Amino acid sequence: MNEDLKQWQDKNEHYLSAGLNWLRLRLMRMADSFGNEKGPSRRKRSKEILRALEAMRTVEASEPPPALVILRRRFGLSRFEQEILLLCAAMELDTRTPSLCAAAQDQPNRVYPSFSLALTLFDEPAWDALSPERPLRYWRLIDINRAGTQSLIHSPIRADERIVNYIKGLNHLDDRLTSMLTPFDLLSEETHLPLSQQEIVTSSVQYIQTAMKESHVPVTQLVGLDSLSKQLAAQQTSRDLGLQLYRLPVEFLPTQPTEIEAFARLWQRESLLLPVAVYLDAHEPDPNARPEGGAPPPERSLQRFLARSNGVFFLSTREIRSDLGAATRTFDVKKPTPAEQQATWHASLGEDINGSDYPSILAGQFNLNVPTIERIVQNVAAEPDNKGRIPYERLWNACLVSTGPKLDMLAQRLEPKATWEDIVLPEEALGLLHQIADQVRQRTKVYDTWGFRQKMNRGLGISALFTGDSGTGKTMAAEVIANELNLNLFRIDLSGVVSKYIGETEKNLRRLFDAAEDGGAILFFDEADALFGKRSEVKDSHDRYANIEINYLLQRMESYGGLAILATNMKSALDQAFMRRLRFIVNFPFPGITERKRIIQKIFPPDVPKADLDYDRLARLNLAGGSISNIAINAAFMAASTDSEVTMTLLMAAARSEFRKMERPIKESEFLWQDK
Would the pLDDT of 220 be above 80? Predict the structure, then answer.
């Protein structure tokens, strides 16, 4: 225990001992007046009371003062109100107090303090101490147990448990708040904020320190997409201000006005008792939402809570809130810049990088905050390779895991298995696919080292359109790029994104792009014409909102920083504004005989038992690669059912079924085959 704290606690105990002695003497003197207790003369009792009072005042004059005096100063209590609080606390601290209260009131059953007792017992009584607007009742320092028709001044009063503990020298967060509030532990002693975030911390500290000199501290809004960066900035600001920060999700706030009022007053009381601040997490506000049962949405509770409270508040929101009913100051908190992320990787890896380009490569591909980078390095470093070094592959995979799961609700994760050896395309199309992969790899050098990021605000992402008939290899090409770059590939689930409700599609798209901004994913919009179609002439409200969706997509495509691939077999249906924003357009032509032969030769895994196949004959089947794959798989299943090889007879039978499925005309003679 800190020596200064121990000395203060000893002094506080001495003060309480003197105060309780003074109170007992006054109660005994009052009881003497009823003749209920034999004792010294009234004059002698008065002298003892004066000596006890003098002992109290001596301790009160010291610095720092005892807890009860601190309470009086912080809550603006009068001397009479301080004495009432001591009387109530004595019920918990001194077992003799109940019987003395009964004797002082000449009522054996009144073993409790009341306002009537206090008005008679103390020297400077004031009737307004009973007022709900005075500190004792306003701050809930005392509770009144008023039963039935019992009058206010005769009702039992007791000190709040939190206040009794404070008077005793135990200053801990009220247990009525601990279930709703979570202390922060993101910031360790070794954590250093990047310069861009430290500048925000410095500004917010100066702003709050200045505001603290006024009667009301405005709310500090922390705006941005990255919750962890905002939490880190708020925690560092609180630490610099000497405050303990707690997190409170807005959905935890009470919903009824009376409950909000009580909670707000309870929290404000805590902010006077403890050096605390609260981080209100309202990252996804929805003012129009209304829960079942008619309860107000969290934002309504938030507005009322802030209007009824004072203290240091950090409000985490995605966008600036102007509906809070309280004065605010806004700071835009972003993730560290790529250069700062690279420095964080370098500092976290330390000597383990051995002069490698790990920090540059990881910062170039992934957009991560400081706590995430430190956590990844800590977890991977716990299991080094056989040479005691951190394996780069595990760092990369850990980044993929960290950035991937947020998309699973809006998109389907594809397992990329295809490689450059598997895909069959003309040289021009293959060259464009290689360019796409190379640009993703070299983004850090071009954008940051060579300075393009400083000259451009938008268009830093890489977008490509894959256009061609169904089955020509568009999805496979996306897999090849994802496999080459070792990135997660997500196919956008249009059923989960497109909504019939106005504004919901944009919200889903926003969540989709926001989640993908961390850089570990490739977005693959299959059947893109369903989302990226042409804007139409506005004839009714449906047309207008449909155009709003397309306009929003245009903006997000231009500002998105990762790789987005659009695939369609209806290129003409796309809005021309999208075409301008696309960096690559790759045409996937229908394969000719030569390409079909290569596809068939590559289609079977090495372990498939095959007879001698006539690849030239199979290549004359006028089908796209997707249909050829179906034929190969169906033939393999037919062979497996008879425990035989894949033969031309089975392949031609599977081809006949594929043609019929596609409702294409066939001649039976073309599909007859007699194996040798």
Answer: yes
DSSP assignment of 381-397? HTS--TTS---HHHHHH
3-state class (DSSP) for residue 671: helix
Label residues 398-423 b or e (16+ Cβ within 10 Å = b).
bbbebbbebbeebbeebebebeeeeb
- Taking only the tens place, the pLDDT of each residue in 72-123 is 999 999 999 999 999 999 999 999 999 999 999 888 888 999 999 999 999 8
Average pLDDT, the chain: 85
8-state DSSP, 160: -
Three-class DSSP labels, 190-251:
CCCCCHHHHHHHHHHHHHHHHHHCCCCCCEEEEECCCHHHHHHHHHHHHHHHCCEEEEEEHH
Tell me which amino acid residue 667 is. Answer: K
Report the b/e string of 631-668 with b at 16+ CB within 10 A.
bbebbbebbeeeeeebbbbbbbbbbbbbbeeeeeeeee
- Rounded CA gap, 166 and 85, in Å? 12
From the number of C-beta atoms within 10 Å of its C-beta (0-12, 13-18, 19+), residue 382 rates as exposed
DSSP per position, 281-321: E-SS--TT---GGGPPPHHHHHHHHHHH--S-EEEEESS--
Please report, as a single letter, which amino acid is at residue 228. Answer: L
CB 522 within 8 A of CB 481: yes
Residue 149 near residue 140 (C-beta atoms within 8 A) = no
Backbone angles phi, psi at 488, to 5 degrees: -70, 140
Report d(CA 641, CA 633) in Å as an integer. 13
What domains can be seen in the chain, in order of their start residue? 3-171 (no CATH), 178-332 (3.40.50.300), 338-394 (no CATH), 427-588 (3.40.50.300), 593-671 (1.10.8.60)
For residue 75, give the nearest of 163, 148, 182 by alpha carbon.
163
466 has which bridge partners? Answer: 567, 586
Q: Partners of 463 in the beta sheet?
A: 564
Question: What CA–CA distance (Å, rounded) separates 67 from 19?
Answer: 12
* Closest among 152, 162, 63, 71 to 114, alpha carbons compared: 152
H or E segment at 7?
A: helix 3-32
Res 670: pLDDT: 66
Residue 170 in this model has a pLDDT that exceeds 80: yes
The alpha-carbon radius of gyration of the chain (Å, integer) is: 37
- Give the angle subtended at the CA of 478 by the CAs of 472 and 481, to the nearest 5°: 125
pLDDT digits (tens, 9 = 90+) for 62-75: 889 999 999 999 99
Question: What's the pTM value of the predicted model, to 2 decimals?
Answer: 0.80
Long-range contacts of 541-547 (CB under 8 A, 24+ apart): 545/502, 545/503
In 81-240, beta strands by DSSP E = 142-144, 157-159, 182-183, 219-223
For residue 64, cis peptide bond before it (omega within 30 degrees of 0):
yes
Instruction: Report whether pLDDT(2) > 70.
Output: yes
Mean pLDDT of 393-412: 81
User: Is pLDDT above 90 for 237?
Assistant: yes
pLDDT attached to residue 462 = 87
Give me the percent of the chain exceeding a pLDDT of 70.
Answer: 87
Distance CA 554, CA 548 (A): 10
What SS3 class is residue 117? helix
